[in-house]
Amino acid sequence: MPEQSVSGARFYGDLASWWPLISPPEDYEEEAAFAARLLGAASIPVHDVLELGSGGGHNAVHLKARFAMTLVDLSAEMLAVSRELNPECDHHQGDMRTVRLGRGFDAVFVHDAVMYMTSEIKLAQAIATAFVHCRPGGVAVLVPDCTTESFEPYTDHGGGDDADGRGVRYLEWAWDPDPHDTWAVAELAFVLRDADHTVRVVHEQHRWGLFGRSVWLGLLEEAGFEARVVIEETTEDRRPRELFVGHRPLVPSPAVIDGRGTRATKTVADLGPRTAVPSGVVLPSEMVSRMRDEESPRDHSPGSACRVAIVGSATAAVRRSRPASSSFR
Ligand SMILES: C[S@@+](CC[C@H](N)C(=O)[O-])C[C@H]1O[C@@H](n2cnc3c(N)ncnc32)[C@H](O)[C@@H]1O
């Protein structure tokens, strides 16, 4: 049996040292700069930023120029990779659904690791973690690779070599076996060449959560955030991502009854006039009953006329050809 990391994926476990060759830090520069703009747009000054699911620290290596970064990941091996790159950042091992650091941050960032939330209850737990660590007036920025609306099956390939003679090439093939549930699969085949020219092949399947915009916004509002969608600006040749931004109000809504952001009396009116009501999902009891710990049937409610803030558009410049949804930059 191959050794498994705590997150169940060898690529975040015993093979984590290959991560910089699979998804190099420099590929994150533009995306991190865009995220930094949103993180910095809180209604309080933003200095301390928490990243949940920080992986090899490839966003943090850019974000740390502007913010004091605290990094949380499930995998000790990925944290070790990140510590090499970001020795000045604070690292903690933890699950984004349950970790509680006992302190607040001006902003919380959750990048592609949020794709590992494959049911609404898991996503709600991760959002609750973001909320409890976010100071009043702070902001949370969550960046799934795709939503139900934007997911398309794709294939992708990539990889690189290091100065010591190690190299990786990978093939990524993603599709959605059942459009009625909340996850898709990616088959990942990696060919790894060691410095002594030994070559091995590793295959693993990853499951990625897929949720509609209305679900994202509903869960953020449910946690206590004021939620909106921002369309990414990118020069990469791919569909821009949708970033989900939650502002934690300076003064909590009377409906927020405890520090976990649980709402007791949320009604349709709480969502305000800017939000189209996703049919059948807004009242909390209905929302809770739809959540199941197992990957759940997908919400097909026509709630996508939600808070979409277009802050920019994709430009024509092509840096690199990419499918819309690839997890690896
Ligand atoms: C694609 S990598 C993230 C790469 C990251 N964006 C970077 O800058 O290097 C996904 C990461 O999510 C982490 N992860 C998966 N499930 C998690 C969870 N429940 N809590 C925290 N981290 C998780 C994995 O350990 C892995 O490091």
Write a structural description.
- The chain has helices at residues 19-22, 29-39, 60-63, 76-85, 120-133, 213-223, 284-290, and strands spanning 48-52, 68-73, 90-93, 105-110, 134-142, 154-161, 167-175, 183-193, 199-209, 226-231, 242-247, 308-309.
- The protein is α/β, with parallel strands linked by helices and 329 residues long.
- It contains seven helices and twelve strands.
- The protein folds into two domains: 10-149 and 210-309, Rossmann fold, CATH 3.40.50; 154-207, CAC2371-like domains (S-adenosyl-L-methionine-dependent methyltransferases).
- The strands form two sheets. The protein has an eight-stranded mixed beta sheet, with helices on both faces. Strands 6-7-8-9 form a four-stranded antiparallel beta sheet, with no helix packed on it.
- The two termini are 29 Å apart.
- 19% of the residues lie in helices and 25% in strands.
- Mean pLDDT is 82; it is low at 1-6, 259-294 and 298-323.
- It is globular.
- Bound molecules: S-adenosylmethionine.
- S-adenosylmethionine (SAM) binds at residues 7, 12, 28, 53, 55-59, 73-75, 78, 95-97, 111-113, 116, 327.
- S-adenosylmethionine binds at residues 7, 12, 28, 53, 55-59, 73-75, 78, 95-97, 111-113, 116, 327.
CATH-level-2 architecture of the largest domain:
3-Layer(aba) Sandwich
CATH homologous superfamily (4th level) name of the largest domain: Vaccinia Virus protein VP39
Give the N-terminus to C-terminus distance in angstroms. Answer: 29 Å
CATH fold category name of the largest domain: Rossmann fold
List the ions, cofactors and other small molecules found in this model. Answer: S-adenosylmethionine
The overall pLDDT average reads 82
CATH class of the largest domain: Alpha Beta
> What is the rounded Rg?
19 Å
Q: Which class of secondary structure composition applies to the elements?
A: alpha/beta
Measured by DSSP, the beta-strand proportion falls in 25-35%
How many extended strands? 12
Low-pLDDT residue intervals, each spanning 5 or more residues: 1-6, 259-294, 298-323
* Shape type: globular
Order of helices and strands: HHEHEHEEHEEEEEHEEHE
In this structure, how is the largest beta sheet organized? Answer: 8 strands, mixed
Q: What is the overall number of helices?
A: 7
Q: What number of structural domains do the residues give? A: 2
